[in-house]
Design a protein that fits this description.
The protein has 308 residues and is of the alpha/beta class. 60% of the residues lie in helices and 9% in strands. The longest helix is centred in the last third of the chain and has 22 residues.
Length: 308
């Protein structure tokens, strides 16, 4: 697994430098065939070498024939010329590799990754220091572990947003991204930007209830009208499982205690099918499911929709 990851990572690096495409499936097939054949003659597990590939690249090699020539030269060297290299300092050998690899260090790309995504930059640092102080295998493992941690964090804590209406439009968007968007009085609109699974269903429910509590406290302080409707925008939700449906049921019960109606807007085909199979649509009522947020607002808060 590590050898395959290393080979494909090296292949992509040089593919970007020389502007050609690589096929991951063919790379896997080639490595597997090579190691199966090699195992018949007690060979070590083989994979791509960053240092040797860099040396080949700096030497101007164009095709795989260079590897054949290199193998023949290495074999002849081991058989005939090895005594001549006995006293060669390791520093000389290291300088050859360093001179070839140093050109692969791209500071501009590293800075760009830092500006775009800090977690990706942490994976980059993990891979860099793992390779420098341990080995390529440890560097790749560290980078993969950090990347998996990032994915798990995104899955377990999906993005959610409070929506408001852009003036003189029927568009409802994130109030943090567009400060000019205004909230609809008596209506709280929430958007979930991820599929709802067992890993994040409880977080989504608690996040919505926390927003609702904050909204109620703000209404009491400013003596505003109480929230009567909670609209959940489901268009970004590509899928939902039984845990997610159970979380919606718990959310519905919590809202009923507060005398707030739950409304769903624009659920996708996979989501609405599962909601119907679980009979959640019967529980909430078909009249509480709408094609868009604007349709729901016009139905349950027509005066507020006219005001915004």
């Amino acid at each position: 697994m590590v050898g395959l990851t290393e080979a494909i990572a090296i292949g992509r690096t040089f593919a970007a430098l020389k502007d050609y495409q690589i096929d991951g499936n063919k790379e896997m097939l080639a490595l597997g065939t090579m190691n199966i054949v090699g195992s018949m003659t007690s060979c070590y597990v083989g994979t791509g070498s960053m240092s040797r590939s860099a040396v080949n690249y700096m030497a101007g090699c164009k095709t795989a024939i260079s590897n054949v020539v290199m193998a023949i030269v290495v074999m002849l060297t081991l058989l005939l010329v090895t005594p001549l290299f006995k006293y060669t300092p390791n520093a000389i050998l290291a300088s050859i590799i360093i001179n070839a690899v140093v050109s692969l260090v791209d500071y501009e790309t590293a800075y760009l990754i830092w500006k775009v995504d800090k977690m990706d930059f942490m994976a980059l640092l993990g891979a860099f220091f793992g390779v420098v102080f341990a080995s390529v295998e440890y560097g790749l493992l560290i980078a993969v572990a950090i990347s998996l941690g990032k994915i798990l964090l995104q899955v377990t804590r999906p993005r959610t947003a409070l929506l408001g209406n852009l003036p003189r439009t029927t568009i409802y968007t994130n109030v943090e991204q567009y400060p000019e968007a205004t909230k609809v009085p008596g209506v709280m609109i929430v958007r979930v930007d991820s599929a709802i699974y067992f890993t994040n269903s409880n977080y989504v429910k608690e996040r919505i209830l926390r927003w609702l509590r904050d909204e109620e406290e703000q209404q009491q302080e400013q003596k505003l009208s109480k929230t009567e409707f909670l609209i959940v925008e489901l268009s970004p939700v590509t899928d939902i499982d039984t845990s997610g449906i159970h979380a919606l049921e718990e959310l519905l019960k919590a809202l009923e205690k507060r005398k707030i109606q739950l409304i769903l807007a624009n659920p996708g085909p996979a989501v609405i099918q599962k909601l119907r199979s679980a009979k959640f649509t019967e529980l909430i009522g078909d009249d509480k499911i709408f094609l868009s947020v604007d349709d729901a607002v016009k139905k349950f808060a027509p005066k507020s929709a006219l005001n915004v």
